[in-house]
Design goal:
Length: about 260
């Protein structure tokens, strides 16, 4: 989802290299990491990968990007067919895999992608590959198809299905959740995002087929999120069978609490 235009570091000690003037970032704040593209964005500019030891640049070939970026508003333009045997796991990038202000020494590497600074961790790649044993991973981010070109290779992930979230409207009632529900098409799913509305958290708190996990954007994905996803993945509601030709019954409602 789209990050705020400017977020202030909460590290009063000034130890955060991202927010306190090192690596070319202005002191006191970090610019928004969201990729600068729109509906008709051309082929990506030079993508630079910066580490402490190396600095290289390459240009993504237009032919490698155009099939995924044509009509990016459609949630049906995915590169991998759904696997009904697994629940879906929708991944945000900014605020989840690309935190705003991680703790110094937490293993993040700076990358310049589409002219924006992005922080990524190899540990996240290991966790996501572990989650891929249980879930079918999918992008639900303003990066859209560009996540497969820029983010996935750096985390050791294959191209993933993606949901069109670039048209996010902060005034919309359900925001990015509505296209996720349409894409899931009734399958159980989990959603990792830093801007999940509290109203949705309350609505789906007791659902067995939907798991919404909010992530603190300052710290990003943590091991506790992974453990929660692996311990109790969302599952389809089981409907009791009826006589031949009859319609399946609805799941029994949860008993009310006394008082």
């Amino acid at each position: 989802m789209t990050a705020p235009a400017r977020l202030t570091c909460t590290d009063a000690r000034g130890a955060c290299g991202v927010c306190h003037g090192r690596a070319g970032v202005s002191a006191g704040a970090r610019s928004a990491p969201a990729p600068p593209f729109g509906c008709n964005h051309p082929c990506p500019p030079t993508v630079e990968h910066n580490t402490d030891l190396t600095r290289s640049a390459y240009r993504v070939r237009p032919s490698a990007v155009r099939p995924h970026s044509v009509r990016p508003r459609s949630p049906h333009l995915t590169t991998v067919a759904p696997t009904p045997t697994k629940p879906l796991l929708y991944l945000d990038v900014d605020g989840v895999l690309n935190p705003v202000c991680p703790h110094p020494g937490s293993g993040y590497t700076r990358h310049l992608l589409l002219r924006s600074e992005v922080l990524l961790s190899a540990t996240h790649g290991e966790w996501l590959r572990e989650l891929a044993e249980v879930y079918e991973l999918a992008w639900a981010s303003t990066w859209e198809a560009w996540a497969n070109q820029c983010i996935a290779p750096l985390l050791g992930l294959p191209p993933l299905p993606w949901v069109a979230c670039g048209g996010f409207n902060s005034g919309a009632r359900d925001g990015d959740f509505a296209p996720i529900v349409r894409h899931a098409a009734g399958r159980p799913f989990a959603w990792l995002d830093d801007l999940i509305p509290p109203r949705l958290l309350r609505r789906y708190a007791d659902r067995s087929d939907v798991l919404l996990l909010p992530v603190e954007p300052g710290q990003g994905l943590r091991r506790r999120h992974v453990d929660r996803l692996l311990s109790r993945p969302p599952r389809a509601a089981h409907l009791s069978p009826g006589p031949p030709g009859s319609r399946p019954s609805e799941p029994a409602p949860s008993p009310r609490r006394p008082g």
